[in-house]
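Invent a record, attention on tokens:
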Amino acid sequence: MAVVKANSSDLKLLARLLRAEAEGEGNLGMLMVGNVGVNRIIGNCLDFRNIRTVPQMVYQSPGGFEATQKGYFYQRARESEIQLARRVVNGERQNPATNALWYFRPASGGCPAQWYNQRNVGRYKAHCFFAPASGECPRVY
């Protein structure tokens, strides 16, 4: 059963986001980006209050994803990314993104211990993942 509602258009939109944000990180990296997106929808906390749908999450501004704000969100969804999008919408979670609401790719060096007052929960390839304290967003825990 899906943890967020998503029709075929929503899955394609999410798939485009996965591809734009993390294609170079492989399937696992794209799944983690999807985890962050789904967490933003179900969390209803912090910067993501009233984000209830996939389109609201994908196009949130400010505070949304770099790909949609800087113009590299133009490639069509491929079937492989649509399948990944379906997996995260259905609740599949990957560590370290399990409870993360943010990620970023540092220009160089390691991941900071905190980012915008959120704790680092791990790194996968080039992306650092950050999650709120468990009491701040209980729906993502």
